[in-house]
């Protein structure tokens, strides 16, 4: 399971407990050989059921040690028996409240089931006992990252690296944080350093591929991972990395071959299925892409992978013009309870945007606008969201508002397509003004009543009055105008 169970903490615990009784200590010495055999067997085993059986035997030989119970709980976690794992972890901590390793492993378990605040409490307890505990600091950094607290995560990883600059887990953790800060060169340095210590580390291999892609160094990515494949053709991380780089080079058929090869090694490799689906979509083979995404959704995978698959499936359905089915996929993502998980939340924002695009495909421009506006209010400095709303405002004939939104988008980030769209809307407004003899075409339009007509209309008239929608006086004046309009109608 990749953990050294013969820890100094455990050896000290056992010695201190038994040195009071010579007879008992003698008994422990007699069974030490078998316990060490069990430990070695577990460290080399990947069979979770066998590990649990070893723990049972270990406990019969040394019933006062907490270690076999912690290992057993970790094995339950690995086999997704979460309730059993949780109960056993809590029992160990209750019986051995000063045993730091139990808190640490329980923290990782809680993080795995997305109980982030409770996980932080466990890691903090370990750090209280041992302020330099690198496993707890790395675990805490991972939780902060999941919560979207990137600065705090970086502090944890830097603290580990101050004491151990070659710590692979901290280097990988820092790498992904820097990647999200769009500091791809620095992220790449972290992953390269990590690979110096463990050249086959899966996390570092995947992270290096991400950083190189972020730098658009697709050919360099292909060359690096192909060298690894010369040594081991069954390295699925390298196969997937080459496939993704080839997608970046728009060599979709070649990319498809690498993802197929990866799945030949590991039929349940989620990243290969996602890559294969992306290659099919790029080739215009949307039905084949859908089969890939459905395969992932049916698998026993994490919420993150399932959300990614639903996202990709919705996009493929949109590509086929099946907008209503696409909307159903996006709604599943939007409605999913993801708590405070940063990556899942990001996927929900993307799903809301793509739902808006699908609604636009159905000609439901007002509903599409509502989707885009939710994103715009969440991410006010995102030029794409301003541009999305501007397109829908154009579709429903609100040219002045559309122009305002396009200009805001361009003030955040210059874009040739956005600039062209702005000029097109300005031309439409000019044509309308000539036709109507109006100085402001939108001022002559009646409000577009939506799901909440009073609020919609109130906001529209507040805007016309040039007031603040939080100002009671302006709100009152707008309400009077709405009442008058309704009476006239």
Structure description:
The chain is built from 26 helices and no strands. It is elongated and about 95 Å long. It has 489 residues and is mainly alpha-helical. Among the domains are: 1-131, Serine Threonine Protein Phosphatase 5, Tetratricopeptide repeat (Alpha Horseshoe); 450-489, no CATH class. The protein has helices at residues 8-18, 22-43, 48-61, 67-78, 82-95, 100-112, 116-129, 134-146, 150-163, 168-180, 184-197, 202-214, 218-231, 236-248, 252-265, 270-282, 286-298, 303-319, 323-335, 342-361, 365-378, 383-395, 399-412, 416-436, 453-465, 472-488.
Residue runs with pLDDT of under 50 for 5 or more positions: 1-29, 440-454
Q: For the record, give the distance between the C-alpha atoms at the N and C termini, rounded to a whole number.
A: 73 Å
- What class do helices, strands and sheet pairing give? mainly alpha
CATH architecture of the domain at 1-131: Alpha Horseshoe
Give the tally of β-strands.
0
Percent of residues in helices: over 70%
Task: Provide the β-strand percentage band.
Answer: under 5%
By DSSP (H or I, 4+ residues per run), the number of helices equals 26
Write down the CATH class of the domain at 1-131: Mainly Alpha
């Amino acid at each position: 399971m990749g953990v050294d169970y013969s820890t100094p903490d455990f050896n000290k615990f056992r010695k201190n407990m038994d040195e009071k009784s010579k007879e008992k200590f003698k008994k422990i010495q007699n069974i030490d050989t078998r316990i060490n055999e069990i430990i070695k067997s577990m460290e080399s085993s990947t069979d979770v059921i066998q590990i649990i059986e070893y723990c049972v035997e270990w406990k019969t030989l040394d019933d006062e040690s907490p270690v076999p119970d912690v290992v057993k709980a970790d094995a339950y976690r690995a086999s997704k028996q979460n309730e059993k794992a949780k109960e056993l972890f809590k029992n160990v901590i209750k019986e051995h409240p000063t045993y730091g390793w139990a808190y640490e492993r329980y923290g990782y378990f809680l993080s795995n089931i997305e109980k982030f605040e409770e996980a932080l409490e466990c890691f903090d307890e370990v750090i209280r006992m041992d302020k330099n505990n690198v496993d707890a600091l790395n675990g805490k950094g991972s939780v902060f990252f999941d919560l979207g607290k990137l600065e705090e995560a970086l502090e944890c990883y830097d603290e580990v690296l101050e004491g151990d600059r070659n710590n692979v887990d901290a280097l990988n953790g820092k790498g992904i944080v820097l990647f999200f800060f769009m500091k791809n060169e620095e992220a790449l340095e972290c992953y390269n350093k990590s690979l110096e210590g463990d050249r086959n580390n899966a996390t570092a291999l995947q992270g290096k591929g991400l950083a190189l892609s972020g730098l658009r160094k697709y050919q360099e990515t292909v060359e690096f991972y192909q060298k690894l494949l010369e040594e081991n053709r069954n390295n699925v991380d390298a196969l997937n990395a080459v496939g993704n780089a080839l997608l970046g080079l728009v060599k979709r058929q070649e990319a498809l071959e690498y993802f197929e090869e990866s799945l030949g090694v590991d039929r349940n490799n989620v990243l290969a299925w996602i890559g294969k689906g992306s290659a099919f979509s790029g080739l215009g083979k949307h039905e084949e892409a859908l089969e890939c995404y459905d395969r992932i959704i049916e698998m026993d995978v994490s919420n993150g992978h399932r959300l990614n698959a639903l996202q990709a499936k919705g996009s493929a359905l949109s590509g086929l013009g099946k907008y209503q089915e696409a909307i159903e996929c996006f709604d599943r993502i939007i409605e999913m309870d993801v708590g405070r998980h940063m990556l899942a939340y990001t996927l929900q924002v993307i799903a809301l945007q793509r739902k808006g695009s699908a609604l636009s495909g159905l000609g439901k421009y007002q509903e599409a606008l509502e989707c885009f506006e939710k994103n715009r209010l969440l991410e006010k400095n995102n030029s794409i969201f301003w541009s999305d709303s501007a397109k829908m405002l154009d579709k429903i004939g609100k040219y002045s508002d559309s122009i305002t939104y396009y200009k805001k988008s361009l003030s955040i980030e210059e874009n040739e397509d956005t600039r062209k769209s702005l000029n097109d809307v300005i031309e439409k407004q000019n044509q309308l003004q000539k036709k109507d003899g109006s100085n402001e075409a939108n001022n002559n339009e009646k409000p577009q009543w939506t799901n909440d007509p009073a609020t919609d209309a109130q906001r529209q008239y507040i805007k016309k009055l040039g007031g603040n929608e939080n100002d009671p006086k302006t709100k009152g004046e707008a309400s009077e105008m709405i009442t008058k309009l309704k009476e006239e109608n």
